[in-house]
UniProtKB/TrEMBL annotation:
Segments forming domain DUF2264: 17-366
Top-rank lineage group of the source organism: Bacteria
InterPro entries: DUF2264_N (IPR049349), UCP014753 (IPR016624)
Protein name stated in the entry: DUF2264 domain-containing protein
Region (Disordered) location: 398-431
Coiled-coil region(s): none
PANTHER family, sorted: LINALOOL DEHYDRATASE_ISOMERASE DOMAIN-CONTAINING PROTEIN
The organism of origin for this protein: Streptomyces vietnamensis
Biased composition (Polar residues): 421-430
Length: 608
C-alpha cells in the first residue's frame, strides 16, 4: 500500500493529512488478517507470552480491538468499505458467539470464566454502535441474538473497581440503541456514572480507582467512554455534564505532548501509544475542547507519526508490546499480543467528516513549541514544564500513585518517580531509579511508596512520603525555563543516614542532563549506569550523595534536562539562598521565587 504524499502547506509540522490516517488504519487491519482463525472469530497475534487471561482471551482481544479500528474506518467513510473489513468481522461475530465458551478455533470466552472479556465487550459494542447501519442491521436475527446474549453479562456490576465500570456503560449504550434490555441498560449506565463520580477531583481529573492513580487513563478511558456515549446517544444532559470536564482535562492534556509528537510516558498501559490522541479528537467531535481544529490535528498526527517512525510496528506490520519497539519491562501482566490495538481509539478523528476544519485547517503549534511553560495540574499533584527551544516536556510527580502502592513495597516505575519526560527513562528492574530521592540502608535505596500532595502552585509542587517507619520526606519542585530546583526535607531519620538524589536517565542519543548540588550534598556528581529504558539502551543517570544530620536534614539540588546544543551549566540558571527551611531562588531572568518548607511541613495532609 503506497504512502500518501506529505502536504507541508496544510500540515507544516507533520506533513500528514487524513489520507495518512486512512492508509495507516487500512494497513494495520490488513496486516492482522493472516492471524485470524478459520471463521474469523479470533485474531491470534504472535507474541512473547500470553496475558494472564490466556491465549483464547488474547485472541478475542486481537479481534475486538482491531474491530474497533475497522468500525472507525468504515463509519468515518459513511459506510464505504473498500477494504471489505466489515464482512470479515461480521463472519467473526457469528462464529465467535455461536457457542461461546467452547475450546474450538473460533469461539469467544464467556465473561463468567474470563473477566478480560468484559473489557473487550466495550470495544465490540462501540464498534457495533458506530457501524450499526452497515453491520448490525444487516445481520440475521440468530446472530444478533447470539451477540446480544454474549454482551448482556457486561451489564452486571464491574468486578474491578476502576475504569472497568465504563465497559458496562459502553455495552449498555449500544444495547439501548438496539432496543435490547433497555431498562437494565439504563440502570447500568446510571450505576457506572455514579461510581466514577466518586473519583472526580475537579479541573478535568479523575483518579482511576480509590487511590491517587493519575495517568493516561484519564484521557483514553475516564473521559472517553462517558463523553462518547453521551454524544452517540444525543443525550444533551449528559454531554452538558461531562463535556466541560473533558474540555478542562484537554486544557492540561495538550501540554503533555513533545514537539516531536511523543506523549509523556507515565503511568501504565503505555503500549496503547497513540490512544493518547483519542481525547483531543473527542473534544473536537463533541465541541468540548479548548483546542483549535489545527492544533488538534497537529497533536494527533504528530503522535501517530512519532510512533510510526519509531518502530511501533514490526516487520509484519504488527503493533508490538512496547513504546518504540518491543520493551518487556513496560508490559503489564494483563497485556497480551493483541493489547496494543487499544491504540485504535486514537483513530477517533476519522468520525469527523473530511470537510471538517480539523482536517482542512492548517496545523498549529503545540504549547511545547510556542513558549516555555510551567503549569500545575492541581488535583493530580502534577507539574508540567515545557521548553520551546527544544520542544521537550517534563512532568514532575507529587501526587500520582499506583493504585496498589503501599509504604515499603516495590515501586512501580510508571508512578513512583518524581519526574518523567518525553525523551528519557524511566529506569526499570535492578537499575538505580532515576529522578528519585532515597535513603540508603545497608546500601539499598528506599522506595518512595505512595506520595501525599501538599501543594501545587503555578511554578511548584510538593508532597510527603514515608520511606521507612517513623521517617518522613517532604519533597518539593520549583521549575522555571529548563531549570528545576529539587528540595527534600528528611524528618526523623537516624543521624548519619546516607541519602541519594538521582537525575534524568538519558540515552546516548538523547538530551543532556545536569545535576548540581546546592545544599546538604557532597560536591561530587557521580554517574550511574541505568541500562535500557523505553527510549533505548545504554542510559546513564547522574547522582548526588549526602548524609543526614540531626532530626531534620535539608537537601537541595538544581537539575536540568535539555536538547539545546552546548547548554550552559544549570548552576548558571539560578541562584539559591538557604535560610533555615526557607529557600529563595533568583532565576536567570531576575525573577524570584520563595519556598518555605517549614510552612509546608505544617500542612495537614488529611485536610487536603
Amino acid at each position: 500500500m503506497p504512502t500518501p504524499p506529505e502536504n507541508r502547506e496544510l500540515s507544516p509540522y507533520t506533513g500528514w493529512t487524513r489520507a495518512h490516517w486512512e492508509a495507516t488504519a487500512d494497513r494495520l487491519l490488513l496486516d492482522v488478517r493472516p492471524f485470524a482463525s478459520p471463521g474469523h472469530g479470533l485474531i491470534d497475534l504472535p507474541g512473547p507470552r500470553p496475558s494472564w487471561s490466556g491465549p483464547r482471551s488474547d485472541g478475542l482481544e486481537g479481534w475486538a480491538r482491531t474491530f474497533l479500528l475497522a468500525a472507525l474506518r468504515v463509519a468515518g467513510a459513511h459506510g464505504e468499505d473498500p477494504g471489505a473489513h466489515l464482512d470479515r468481522y461480521a463472519e467473526g461475530l457469528a462464529a465467535g458467539t455461536e457457542k461461546p465458551g467452547r475450546e474450538d478455533e473460533d469461539s469467544w470466552p464467556l465473561m463468567a470464566d474470563t473477566p478480560q472479556a468484559i473489557v473487550e465487550s466495550a470495544s465490540i459494542a462501540l464498534g457495533l454502535r458506530l457501524t450499526r447501519p452497515w453491520l448490525w442491521d444487516r445481520l440475521d436475527d440468530r446472530t444478533r441474538r447470539q451477540v446480544a446474549d454474549w454482551l448482556l453479562p457486561a451489564l452486571a456490576p464491574s468486578p474491578v473497581d476502576n475504569n472497568w465500570w465504563l465497559f458496562g456503560l459502553t455495552v449498555a449504550g449500544f444495547l439501548q440503541d438496539a432496543g435490547i434490555e433497555t431498562d437494565r441498560a439504563a440502570a447500568t449506565i446510571d450505576r457506572s456514572l455514579a461510581r466514577i463520580e466518586d473519583w472526580y477531583l475537579g479541573d478535568g481529573w479523575y483518579s482511576d480507582g480509590d487511590n491517587r492513580a493519575f495517568d493516561h487513563y484519564n484521557a483514553w478511558a475516564l473521559h472517553f467512554y462517558p463523553v462518547l456515549h453521551a454524544h452517540l446517544a444525543g443525550d444533551t444532559g449528559l454531554l452538558d455534564r461531562y463535556g466541560p470536564r473533558l474540555r478542562a482535562h484537554l486544557d492540561d492534556h495538550v501540554h503533555l505532548f513533545d514537539a516531536n509528537g511523543a506523549p509523556v510516558p507515565y503511568g501504565r498501559s503505555l503500549i496503547y501509544r497513540f490512544a493518547a490522541a483519542a481525547a483531543p479528537w473527542l473534544g473536537t467531535l463533541t465541541g468540548h475542547t479548548p483546542l483549535t481544529p489545527g492544533a488538534t490535528r497537529r497533536l494527533a498526527s504528530g503522535t501517530l507519526r512519532y510512533f510510526h517512525r519509531h518502530g511501533a510496528t514490526d516487520e509484519r506490520g504488527l503493533l508490538t508490546l512496547g513504546w518504540h519497539g518491543p520493551y518487556p519491562p513496560l508490559v503489564q501482566e494483563y497485556s497480551g499480543p493483541g493489547s496494543p490495538y487499544w491504540a485504535s481509539k486514537g483513530f477517533l478523528g476519522l468520525l469527523l467528516p473530511a470537510s471538517h476544519p480539523a482536517w482542512t485547517d492548517p496545523e498549529e503549534p503545540l504549547p511545547a513549541e510556542r513558549a516555555d511553560t510551567v503549569r500545575a495540574f492541581a488535583p493530580a499533584g502534577l507539574l508540567v514544564q515545557t521548553t520551546a527551544a527544544d520542544g521537550l516536556v517534563r512532568l514532575h510527580n507529587h501526587g500520582s500513585n499506583h493504585v496498589h502502592s503501599a509504604p515499603g513495597d516495590e515501586d512501580d516505575p510508571g508512578y513512583a518517580r518524581h519526574a518523567y519526560s518525553t525523551r528519557t527513562g524511566p529506569s526499570t528492574g535492578t537499575a538505580a531509579a532515576d529522578n528519585h530521592f532515597a535513603l540508603l540502608v545497608e546500601g539499598r535505596a528506599t522506595t518512595r511508596g505512595p506520595a501525599t500532595p501538599l501543594t501545587t502552585g503555578p511554578d511548584r509542587a510538593a508532597s510527603l512520603h514515608h520511606p521507612l517507619p517513623g521517617v518522613r520526606v517532604l519533597s518539593a519542585t520549583l521549575a522555571h525555563g529548563r531549570a528545576e530546583l529539587r528540595a527534600h526535607l528528611v524528618l526523623g531519620a537516624p543521624e548519619g543516614t546516607p541519602v541519594r538524589q538521582t537525575g534524568w536517565a538519558v540515552t546516548p542519543e538523547g538530551p543532556q542532563a545536569q545535576l548540581h548540588p546546592v545544599h546538604g550534598y557532597a560536591p561530587d556528581v557521580r554517574e550511574l549506569p541505568t541500562g535500557e529504558t523505553l527510549q533505548g539502551p545504554g542510559s546513564r543517570t547522574l547522582a548526588l550523595h549526602g548524609t543526614t544530620s540531626g532530626p531534620a536534614s535539608l537537601f537541595v539540588a538544581l537539575a536540568s534536562l535539555t536538547a539545546e546544543p552546548d547548554p550552559a551549566p544549570v548552576s548558571d540558571l539560578a541562584n539559591v539562598r538557604v535560610d533555615g527551611r526557607l529557600l529563595t531562588v533568583t532565576w536567570q531572568n531576575g525573577t524570584t521565587a520563595h519556598l518555605d518548607l517549614e510552612e509546608l511541613e505544617a500542612v495537614d495532609p488529611k485536610g487536603l
